[in-house]
Amino acid sequence: MFFILLFGGISGLCDIQAQSDDVSGKQRDSLNIKADTIVYHNNINILAPAKAAFYSAVLPGLGQAYNKQYWKIPLVYAGIGTGGYFYMFYNNEYKRYRQAYFDRQNGLQDEFPQYTENVLIKAQEYYRRQRDTAMLLTILAYVLNIIDANVSAHLKQWNVNDDLSFKPVQLSVFEKPAFGLQMNISF
Asked: How far apart are CA 48 and CA 152, in angstroms?
């Protein structure tokens, strides 16, 4: 399937003639390829996406500032800060219940005398799971920050044209003419 799409894309860009008539009327094998012209814009920086991703990896939000999308910086810090806050909260609660369980095992007075040992164990498991989930969400927010900076830098280099028109085309695949739509995409 990939090779069909690749060949279709190449044949769409090139005018290929397998055989042509010579001046003397004899057929000769030849291959004429007329390539489309490619226009490069001077303002395209190929390394800009990697640079933006690197900046965001070093300091979250710096890649968004590099892309001049300043409004995203508070969202980045809100995501990472919220995950960090919940990680610290659940970690402190986990430590409190763990310490209470260890104190009770050693015969000392703990801060939760109303709970049984079984409840303390279940509370430890609950807060440990919540802490680990908060850590994963914090890491996810950090990684999404890097991906967002990279993708935004890629999309800033995309050539956007206001001409999004469809043109009807007459196709004569079979003996009768047929009508269809043609969409041209130029890079």
From this structure: 10
How many Å separate Cα 87 from the centre of its chain?
A: 26
Q: For residue 78, what pLDDT is reported?
A: 96
Q: Which residues pair with 168 in a beta bridge?
A: 181
Q: Residue 40: what pLDDT?
A: 46
Q: Rounded to two decimals, what is the model's pTM?
A: 0.62
3-class state of residue 1 by DSSP: coil
Q: Which residues of 12-45 are buried (b: 16+ CB within 10 A; e: fewer)?
A: eeeeeeeeeeeeeeeeeeeeeeeeeeeeeeeeee
How many CB atoms neighbour CB 76 within 10 A? 22
Q: What local confidence, expressed as pLDDT, does residue 47 receive?
A: 80
Do 87 and 131 touch, CB atoms closer than 8 A? yes
pLDDT of residue 164: 66
User: In terms of Cα–Cα distance, which of 141, 166, 15, 2 is closest to 78?
Assistant: 141
Average pLDDT over every residue of 33-47? 57
